[in-house]
Hints:
Elements: E1 2-4, E2 10-12, H1 22-33, H2 46-56, E3 67-73, H3 83-92, E4 95-102, H4 109-116, E5 125-128, H5 134-147
Parallel strand pairs: 3-4, 4-5
Antiparallel strand pairs: 1-2
Helix pairs in contact: 2-3
Amino acid sequence: xxxxxxxxxxxxxxxxxxxxxxxxxxxxxxxxxxxxxxxxxxxxxxxxxxxxxxxxxxxxxxxxxxxxxxxxxxxxxxxxxxxxxxxxxxxxxxxxxxxxxxxxxxxxxxxxxxxxxxxxxxxxxxxxxxxxxxxxxxxxxxxxxxxxxxxx
Length: 152
C-alpha cells in the first residue's frame, strides 16, 4: 500500500504481501485501519503517485496473473508529471489502473479520473460522494477487482 500526495510525497505504508488465508486478509485490513496519514495533505501529484506505484510492481513477491493499480483520491492532478502518460506506461506493461474518486471537494473528479487515470482491460472509475462513503466504496471496488468482473 503506497500513500501519496504531493510531488515528493510517496510512502510505502504496507509492503507487498501474499494473502492466502482469511486470517491474513483480516490482519491486513486491521493494519490498514490503523494507519496514520504518512504524507502531507495539500497537493495532488497523481502522475508522481502512479509512477511510484508502477515502480513497485517490479519488486512484488512473485509474478501475478493479473496486475491492478488502485488509485483513490479527492482531487485532480495539480502538481508534478501528468497522469496520462504514466497511465499509458502502466497499461503497456499489462497493468490495469482503476480509480475511486471522492467527490467531496471536486464534484467533476470522476470525469478527470476517467480521462487521465484509468486504463487497461476492464478499467473503471468508481465514486463516492464524500469521505464518509469511502469505506463502503473501496470495499465494493476491491470486491469487483478481486473477482475480475469487467463491468462497463
